[in-house]
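Hi Y.,

Following your request, here is the sequence exactly as I used it, all 323 residues.
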Amino acid sequence: MGSPAVRMFHRLEGLFCVYKPAGVHWKLVRDTIETNLLKGVNATPARPLPHEVRFLPSPNKDHEVAGGLALRAASVPVLSKHPLVTGPEFQHIKVGVGHRLDVSSSGVLVLAVGNGNRTMRDLYRTRTTRDYSLQCEFGMATQDFTDTGRVVERTTYVLLPSESGSLYRYSSVDMSSQEAYELAAKGLLGPDGKSVPILTGLRCVHFQPPNFTLEVQCLNETQKYLRKVVHEMGLELRSTAVCKGVRRTRDGPFTLQHALTRHHWTAADVAQAMQQHRWKKRSKGRCGTVTDKAVAQTPGETLAASQEDEANRETTIAELQCS
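Below is the corresponding structure, written out as tokens. Let me know if you'd prefer a different format.
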């Protein structure tokens, strides 16, 4: 039977996701969570101290004998096992990070503790896609494809058409074979190994010139690549466009609904989030295979969450830097 701290740590083994705000490095998010988990594990009640038998002087003077003191047997705690002597039971907890987000991006960031790192690697081998919400603006091009970069061109803007992509040509499976049909029916057809970034879906969900919002589904992407897509889209439309914000709304089975915000990065909340993920995974296993086209937020929910993110952004950055 392990100690309360060990039992608490085993409850924290698994996958969970948090909401990374814009303007904060993912390493700061990970370090903050590692510190909070370590505090939570070591804050569990300590195991009772073991006792040992020692012979102590008798407090009763009547028991004194010639040539020495009378001794009595007593059970006393072993102070060398006290937490103030040995220190915390856990000195370090390693938190693994899934698909990372750069400093300027926000959204779902998947993390793992203990054997959850192996589960995370197995999850990403299934070629799960990710969803992003891109806040864009026509009429400007910058050197680094962001709205804060050096402006290199200003133009007029035009309407935005919809586009779509396909990942079939990056798969090692013959498209005319029965294997390709069966994999496509199960939603498992994807690129073989590490491929170039692939857009599996791209649509405009909000358009109010010169601002517009894109919803993107992709594989093997980086946030810089997504910003470049917006830039190239503007050029194709004989105009210019810049990406003002990148927000990940889904990473595999994890969505914004599952992401823990800054004030919930505690051991208790993380353990509860892991338990809910395991329960959901078992429920899906009983109900049959579910593709990675997970539940995504509606455009209205995405815009509302984006506004809330901007309202709380400065406070969150200050709290993380001071913690």
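DSSP finds eight helices and twelve strands in the chain.

Thanks again,
Q.
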